[in-house]
Specification:
Strand order of the largest sheet of chain A: 1-2-3-4-9-10-11-13
Strand content of chain A: 5-15%
Number of helices of chain A: 16
Largest interface: A-B, 78 and 78 residues
Protein name (chains A, B): FMN-dependent oxidoreductase (Nitrilotriacetate monooxygenase family)
Shape of chain A: globular
Helix content of chain A: 25-40%
Family (chains A, B): Belongs to the NtaA/SnaA/DszA monooxygenase family.
CATH topology of chain A: TIM Barrel
Distance between the termini of chain A: 31 Å
Pfam families (chains A, B): Bac_luciferase (PF00296)
Structural class of chain A: alpha/beta
Oligomer: homodimer
CATH superfamily of chain A: Luciferase-like domain
CATH class of chain A: Alpha Beta
Largest sheet of chain A: 8 strands, parallel, barrel
Organism (chains A, B): Compostimonas suwonensis
GO molecular function, one term (chains A, B): oxidoreductase activity, acting on paired donors, with incorporation or reduction of molecular oxygen
Radius of gyration of chain A: 22 Å
Number of strands of chain A: 13
CATH architecture of chain A: Alpha-Beta Barrel
Number of domains of chain A: 1
Order of helices and strands of chain A: EHEHHEHEHHEEEEEHEHEHHHHEHEHHH
Chain lengths: 482, 482
């Protein structure tokens, strides 16, 4: 079976997202991220390259764990300065008609009613091209920016996230019927009031009356992405996510995690193929192997270990504060952080590893299971093998240089993947969900938990999902996966 | 003295903002508000017309007070469906270089840290063209969308707003120095960490650590608009606002209120001319008087009393539920709502009026003190007289039709105002604050309370302003104004 592979550009509204140190490269335009022109040029480039979407990461705090302060993150431009990710999408959408937009937003600190309307607004403005990367946040500094003394405990964040999603589904799916807006000029009826309703959500964390303020957009619920790597995170993803960023260290562990997610999705009453799986791809390509390896050497030379250490120290451990032979697992236990669910870009602590190994891994981009540097043929071979071995559906392409990394991929890799039938040669349908799941699938699958509120059904039921059931499922998966 | 008059287009990301019923007009494009093309076309038109800015109102709830439900608001499209106002700005900014953007956002329900970054992002993306209309919200349904049972009491909302502004000023003005971002490629220093700091705000309502995530934008603090009409609201405006929407019923009462605001600004240590004053202008113009009057008749014929009643009932009183000779003041007292501070578009209850008079006033757009229908000359005469009599600096132009009302104004009124030296013939500086206050004034005036945090000064002071002092000032103004 030949399946076409999805590619998103991995982005963030900041200078240094995950390739720390590279901002100094003379061809890198990252420092122009404050300008609309930067984003407009990128959108045009990606649509030219037939990318699935631009995938915008985000954090709402500073990485100030390393050396007990924000100095290194500031000096190395590690995700600071940074701007809001949602606000670049309308301008990028205005110069494209097919490119998707997935943006990160946390369920922990801001009220669901406001986010529901922002997401619906973006789905309207993009005509159904909006996706949401659901995170629960993990930076201690983020908590302190939102009136808390420290992070909400990991499992509590997921309980809040469950209720948050429940509120959003009610607003997006249940509050307005498809045919509510009638625009009957003769009778002066814009909306048929019998087809719009309050949601009257009352839960442990939120009370939300509704009705939703936005009329139904093409997708209603944006395409839902998530990256849980803990047992609880995986259970959440298997229940809600339509695109999952899978964790792993080897092709085999990715394959196992992907099989687990599909299995758990099925146990949640969803199709195995209702979840698309993604990972970060670290690709250095040029016209031939020699040029690509030289390019990779240049990227390594410009990489800044201090930047990576600040990044790692923000969400987890200050690796500089421990001896190199200390076990990560012991440090996590001592800091009572074993349950932390780090962000996709920060999931670097293999529990059996030593500090020295973790340092090696996080400061060297070639340690990824999805790293390749080589000629177009070699890169395409690697990608083909990754997908065949793991059952992955697609990748977030890491950028070393903007726009260089995307340009290289478009110039060298896409034509080779197209020759092999592994990459689209033209866009089909324009909504993001249809791109992932095929023509006609603008809306959530009927089996998705958000779909139960359609037509206003179940709005008065007790909150779902049942936490106990959720915890049991998570524990079961945890046993299988560990 | 001839001063040039500011004009903003009064807008909202919705079908029916304040001209209820007009959506049925065949040339009205309001029903296309979900589309980017609608906003892009409007931005181009307004920049062609040399408008100061587009001014986006907002509410975060539904008008469901009238007839005890949202049915009328839905049927008549009274500010529902509606979308987020901030998200149309980036696309409008991408096709303009001078037009300003002022958007409404409430201080009551969402955390200040997130809004601080969104505002900075917009000021970056627009290159200093962003303004913020500060509201504290007034719809009971809005409160119920944000986990509350009913509105926060009026004076408590202002206390929250004071602290909210204090947090924002610390983030916008105090957290980063102007020269913090150095981009020293040779030494791998993006930001000089010694020039960025935590704000460590600890107040009654918020704890916010910082640092701000965005680097300084051209204006830092967006241009601050506000529309307080209560004594407390006026005191707030005199302290914080750079553009004030003034209340009134006659030209004389406007003149008095404007003089009061300027006086109170001066008592707050600000210049009398550091506050620009605005009101809504209701203008129907055509090539000659006869055509304009015919147009006004058509607008009246299409106006829907039910829409206006739903609008009025959302924030205040269900006028349909009282006899026509009941006094508004008695109803307000009975409902314990005397302290309510309604939004600019909902300030329709003259306390001495009866229900019948209020009905008459709110369903008839020609009851405004700033209403004129006539030839270009007649309209320009009226505007000139309004400004001369009241000392107003500018107007928000009410739309009956989109794009018709703005097109009419550009075609018929602007050339006449230009001939009289009352309207610019070209844009000067491109930041919004410079447009209002002159070249070089990109930042807050030094006397503005936000300016005190520059360079990180005063971050550790006790919260300002002192509530008791604020209350005393408000009471004093209240006595003078009533």
């Amino acid at each position: 079976m030949t399946k076409q592979i999805s590619f998103n550009l991995f982005e963030m509204n900041t200078v240094g997202h995950i390739s720390h140190g590279l901002w100094v490269h003379p061809s890198n335009t990252r420092h122009q991220f404050n300008d609309l022109d930067f984003w407009i040029a990128e959108a045009k480039l990606l649509e030219e390259g037939l990318f699935d979407s631009v995938f915008l990461a985000d954090v709402i705090g500073t990485y100030d764990g390393y050396r007990a302060g924000p100095e290194t993150a500031l000096r190395e431009a590690v995700q600071i300065p940074s701007n809001d990710p949602l606000l670049v999408i309308p301008a990028m959408a205005s110069v494209t008609s097919k490119l998707g937009f997935a943006a990160t937003f946390s369920t922990t600190y801001e009220p669901p009613f406001a986010f529901a309307r922002r997401a619906s607004t973006l789905d309207h403005l993009t005509k159904g091209r909006f996706g949401w990367n659901i995170v629960t946040s993990y930076l201690p500094n983020a908590a302190r920016n939102f009136s808390l003394d420290d992070e909400v405990a990991h499992d509590d964040r997921y309980a809040i996230a469950e209720e948050y999603l429940d509120v959003l589904y009610k607003l997006w799916e249940g509050s307005w019927d498809d045919d509510a807006v009638v625009r009957d000029r003769d009778n002066h009826v814009y909306t048929d009031p019998s087809k719009v309703r309050y949601i009257n959500h009352v839960g442990e964390h939120y009370k939300v009356a509704g009705p939703h303020l936005s009329e139904p957009s093409l997708q209603r619920t944006p395409v839902l992405f998530q990256a849980g790597s803990s047992a609880r995170g995986k259970a959440f993803a298997a229940r809600h996510a339509e695109g999952v960023f899978v964790g792993g260290t080897t092709l085999e562990s990715y394959a196992k995690n992907i099989a687990d997610i599909r299995q758990l999705a099925e146990e949640n009453g969803r199709g195995r193929d209702h979840v698309k799986t993604f990972a970060s791809a670290v690709i250095v390509v040029d016209k031939d192997r020699e040029s690509a390896l030289a390019k990779a050497e240049e990227y390594k030379r410009l990489s800044r270990a201090e930047g990576y250490l600040a990044h790692a120290g923000g969400g987890g451990i200050d690796l500089a504060a421990y001896p190199k032979d200390a076990l990560i697992a012991d440090i996590l236990a001592a800091e009572n952080r074993a349950g932390r669910d780090n962000s996709p870009e920060n999931r670097r602590y293999a529990p059996g590893a030593t500090v020295g190994e973790a340092l090696e891994r996080l400061t060297n981009f070639d340690q990824s299971a999805f790293y390749v540097a080589g000629s177009p043929t070699e890169v395409a071979d690697a990608i083909e093998n990754w997908v065949a071995t793991t059952d992955l559906d697609g990748f977030n392409l890491r950028q070393f240089l903007t726009p260089g990394s995307a340009e290289d991929f478009i110039e060298y890799v896409i034509p080779e993947l197209q020759r092999r039938g592994l990459y689209r040669t033209a866009y089909g349908e324009s909504t993001l969900r249809e791109r992932l799941f095929g023509a006609g699938q603008q809306r959530l699958f009927d089996e998705h938990p958000g779909a139960r509120y359609r037509g206003g059904a179940h709005l008065n039921d007790a909150a779902l999902p049942n936490d106990a059931a959720q915890d049991a499922a998570a524990a079961e998966l945890g046993e299988r996966a560990s």
